[in-house]
Amino acid sequence: MDSGNRIAIAVKPGKLVERNGFDREFALIRAQTAKHFADHALLVTDSSFSAAEVRNAELLHMFRQVEDAEADEAVQQVLRGMNCEMSLGQVVAATCLQGRAFRAGFKAIFDGVVFTDQSRSITESSMLSLPEAQ
Protein backbone atom coordinates (compact mmCIF):
# COMPACT_ATOMS: atom_id res chain seq x y z
CA MET A 1 0.00 0.00 0.00
CA ASP A 2 1.07 3.65 -0.31
CA SER A 3 1.58 3.71 3.47
CA GLY A 4 4.12 0.88 3.24
CA ASN A 5 1.79 -1.64 4.86
CA ARG A 6 1.66 -5.06 3.24
CA ILE A 7 -1.49 -7.14 3.12
CA ALA A 8 -1.49 -10.86 2.40
CA ILE A 9 -4.74 -11.81 0.69
CA ALA A 10 -6.22 -15.28 0.41
CA VAL A 11 -8.94 -15.61 -2.23
CA LYS A 12 -11.27 -18.59 -1.90
CA PRO A 13 -14.79 -19.49 -3.06
CA GLY A 14 -17.24 -18.86 -0.23
CA LYS A 15 -18.75 -22.35 -0.40
CA LEU A 16 -15.31 -23.92 -0.06
CA VAL A 17 -14.57 -21.76 2.99
CA GLU A 18 -17.84 -22.83 4.62
CA ARG A 19 -17.56 -26.51 3.70
CA ASN A 20 -13.92 -26.96 4.75
CA GLY A 21 -13.87 -24.54 7.68
CA PHE A 22 -11.11 -22.55 6.00
CA ASP A 23 -12.11 -19.44 7.95
CA ARG A 24 -10.94 -21.12 11.18
CA GLU A 25 -7.74 -22.29 9.51
CA PHE A 26 -7.17 -18.81 8.12
CA ALA A 27 -7.52 -17.31 11.62
CA LEU A 28 -4.54 -19.45 12.63
CA ILE A 29 -2.61 -18.43 9.52
CA ARG A 30 -3.36 -14.76 10.24
CA ALA A 31 -2.13 -15.10 13.83
CA GLN A 32 1.12 -16.71 12.65
CA THR A 33 1.85 -14.38 9.72
CA ALA A 34 5.31 -12.92 10.22
CA LYS A 35 5.44 -9.10 10.26
CA HIS A 36 8.33 -9.11 7.78
CA PHE A 37 5.99 -10.89 5.33
CA ALA A 38 2.77 -8.88 5.83
CA ASP A 39 1.27 -6.45 8.31
CA HIS A 40 -2.23 -7.87 7.83
CA ALA A 41 -3.86 -10.95 6.32
CA LEU A 42 -7.25 -10.82 4.65
CA LEU A 43 -9.60 -13.56 3.48
CA VAL A 44 -11.65 -12.58 0.43
CA THR A 45 -14.53 -14.68 -0.91
CA ASP A 46 -17.18 -14.16 -3.54
CA SER A 47 -19.52 -13.04 -0.75
CA SER A 48 -17.10 -10.33 0.41
CA PHE A 49 -18.56 -7.88 -2.10
CA SER A 50 -22.05 -7.03 -3.28
CA ALA A 51 -23.01 -7.31 -6.95
CA ALA A 52 -22.92 -3.48 -7.15
CA GLU A 53 -19.39 -3.34 -5.73
CA VAL A 54 -18.24 -5.98 -8.23
CA ARG A 55 -19.86 -4.04 -11.10
CA ASN A 56 -18.20 -0.81 -9.96
CA ALA A 57 -14.81 -2.53 -9.75
CA GLU A 58 -15.21 -4.03 -13.22
CA LEU A 59 -16.14 -0.64 -14.69
CA LEU A 60 -13.27 1.10 -12.90
CA HIS A 61 -10.81 -1.45 -14.26
CA MET A 62 -12.19 -0.97 -17.78
CA PHE A 63 -12.26 2.85 -17.53
CA ARG A 64 -8.66 3.03 -16.29
CA GLN A 65 -7.43 1.19 -19.38
CA VAL A 66 -7.79 4.32 -21.54
CA GLU A 67 -6.27 7.71 -20.77
CA ASP A 68 -8.43 10.72 -21.64
CA ALA A 69 -6.74 13.83 -20.29
CA GLU A 70 -9.25 16.15 -21.95
CA ALA A 71 -12.25 14.49 -20.27
CA ASP A 72 -10.40 14.19 -16.95
CA GLU A 73 -9.61 17.93 -16.97
CA ALA A 74 -13.14 18.91 -18.03
CA VAL A 75 -14.64 16.88 -15.18
CA GLN A 76 -12.06 18.23 -12.70
CA GLN A 77 -13.00 21.77 -13.73
CA VAL A 78 -16.69 21.11 -13.05
CA LEU A 79 -15.90 19.41 -9.74
CA ARG A 80 -13.70 22.33 -8.62
CA GLY A 81 -16.69 24.61 -9.14
CA MET A 82 -19.07 22.46 -7.08
CA ASN A 83 -20.65 24.27 -4.14
CA CYS A 84 -23.35 21.68 -3.41
CA GLU A 85 -24.15 18.07 -4.20
CA MET A 86 -24.43 17.26 -7.88
CA SER A 87 -25.36 14.08 -9.67
CA LEU A 88 -22.77 12.43 -11.87
CA GLY A 89 -25.21 13.07 -14.73
CA GLN A 90 -25.14 16.81 -14.03
CA VAL A 91 -21.34 16.75 -14.12
CA VAL A 92 -21.43 14.84 -17.41
CA ALA A 93 -23.96 17.29 -18.90
CA ALA A 94 -21.86 20.29 -17.85
CA THR A 95 -18.89 18.99 -19.87
CA CYS A 96 -20.79 18.05 -23.07
CA LEU A 97 -18.49 15.00 -23.31
CA GLN A 98 -21.14 12.30 -22.66
CA GLY A 99 -19.57 8.88 -22.01
CA ARG A 100 -16.06 10.26 -21.83
CA ALA A 101 -17.09 12.51 -18.94
CA PHE A 102 -18.95 9.66 -17.25
CA ARG A 103 -15.76 7.60 -17.30
CA ALA A 104 -13.71 10.53 -15.99
CA GLY A 105 -16.23 11.25 -13.23
CA PHE A 106 -16.37 7.59 -12.28
CA LYS A 107 -12.58 7.51 -11.92
CA ALA A 108 -12.66 10.74 -9.89
CA ILE A 109 -14.89 9.01 -7.34
CA PHE A 110 -12.37 6.21 -6.83
CA ASP A 111 -9.49 8.70 -6.78
CA GLY A 112 -11.16 10.40 -3.78
CA VAL A 113 -11.81 13.70 -5.58
CA VAL A 114 -15.54 13.38 -4.82
CA PHE A 115 -17.60 10.96 -2.77
CA THR A 116 -20.69 8.88 -3.43
CA ASP A 117 -22.13 5.68 -2.00
CA GLN A 118 -19.82 3.07 -3.53
CA SER A 119 -21.85 0.19 -2.09
CA ARG A 120 -24.45 0.92 -4.80
CA SER A 121 -24.00 0.80 -8.55
CA ILE A 122 -22.56 4.11 -9.68
CA THR A 123 -24.78 5.64 -12.33
CA GLU A 124 -25.57 9.09 -13.69
CA SER A 125 -28.04 9.51 -10.81
CA SER A 126 -25.33 8.94 -8.17
CA MET A 127 -25.01 12.04 -6.00
CA LEU A 128 -21.51 13.46 -5.60
CA SER A 129 -20.22 15.50 -2.70
CA LEU A 130 -16.88 17.08 -1.96
CA PRO A 131 -14.50 15.47 0.57
CA GLU A 132 -14.88 18.26 3.17
CA ALA A 133 -18.67 17.71 3.12
CA GLN A 134 -18.17 14.15 4.43
Could you explain the architecture of this structure?
- The chain has a two-stranded parallel sheet.
- The longest helix is centred in the middle third of the chain and has 13 residues.
- The protein is elongated, with a radius of gyration of 19 Å.
- The mean pLDDT is 94.
- The chain is mainly alpha-helical and 134 residues long.
- The chain contains six helices and four strands.
| Mean of residue pLDDT values | 94
- What portion of residues belong to β-strands? 5-15%
Distance between the termini: 23 Å
Overall geometry comes to: elongated
Count of distinct strands:
4
Provide key terms for this protein.
single chain; 134 residues; mainly alpha; two-stranded antiparallel ribbon; 6 helices; 4 strands
Strand-helix topology:
Blueprint: E1 7-11, H1 14-20, H2 22-32, E2 40-44, H3 51-63, H4 69-80, E3 86-87, H5 88-95, H6 98-110, E4 127-128
Helix pairs in contact: 4-5, 4-6, 5-6
Q: Could you write a compact summary of the structure shown?
A:
With 134 residues, this protein is mainly α.
